Amino acid sequence: MIEFIEVDKKYPNGTMALENINLTIEDGEFVAVIGLSGAGKSTLIRCVNRMHEISNGKLVVDGVEVAALKGKEVRKFRRKIGMIFQSFNLVTRTTVIKNVLVSFVPEMPFWRKLLGVYTQEQKREALMALDQVGILDKAYARVDQLSGGQQQRVALARTLAQNPAILLADEPVASLDPVTAKQVMDDFKHINQEMKMTVIMNIHHVELALEYANRIIGISKGQVVYDGAASEVNQDI
Ligand code: ADP
Ligand code: ADP
């Protein structure tokens, strides 16, 4: 469960990106966060894994008060939370499977991870993650030879290999064409339903949000202005 209690986020330059956020997100929900550019969507989800620190209030994730975590605890905490970005954030000049295997050795410097000494078990898990998102046949292809949709699936597989309880996604389909975007959304749905992972996704594409998410949270100027079931959103206004 994720609980925002009277959370504010003020950036060092004075921008008030979030103001008095009160939200409870239960395990297994598929939440779409919608709103205009600059509304505070990115800031909201980046507070959950402490990429950004809140300024006021309380944020509790699976019983842990996020602001109270120290040093090594932060890293351990982040492993429970997967994050997917619009820009995939892959190492494009190497193979798909090496990108996924990176999940298993987070404490090593990045370049060393890519040299790769992995157990058979880790390799098996990486291949399983690729299978979950339907790109097992690309395991030994170079990332830069894949389409955008396939690359986002690699990013998803890398996150799945880490076995998180929560999956955060910041505009994961914004740079994909409409058909590919739907395929990637199907993967998120599958991960949410079959793997019972909580999904919180920023998405400016409202139709996709309504089609795939169970709950819609609307953000405007740093505040929650809508919170309800996707099935109850009336689009005729
Ligand atoms: P969204 O994801 O909805 O586009 P953001 O969370 O990125 O919105 O931004 C919310 C507000 O905070 C915007 O006014 C943005 O310019 C500002 N902002 C975002 N990141 C920073 C930062 N690192 N420093 C200062 N202001 C920021
Ligand atoms: P993305 O599209 O990957 O979410 P953004 O373009 O929103 O990234 O922001 C890129 C980086 O710049 C982020 O780290 C964000 O926090 C920061 N940022 C965004 N808006 C501002 C701002 N107004 N002032 C300072 N930093 C900002």
Automatic annotation (TrEMBL):
One MF term in the entry's GO annotations: ATP binding
Residues annotated as domain ABC transporter: 2-237
Key words, A-Z: ATP-binding, Cell membrane, Hydrolase, Membrane, Nucleotide-binding, Phosphonate transport, Translocase, Transport
Gene3D superfamilies membership: P-loop containing nucleotide triphosphate hydrolases
SUPFAM superfamilies reported for this sequence: P-loop containing nucleoside triphosphate hydrolases
Keyword Hydrolase applies: yes
CDD domains named in the record: ABC_PhnC_transporter
Domain of life: Bacteria
EC nos: 3.6.3.28
Pfam families, per database record: ABC_tran
CC annotations in GO: membrane
Name of the protein in question: Phosphonate ABC transporter ATP-binding protein
Protein species of origin: Oceanobacillus bengalensis
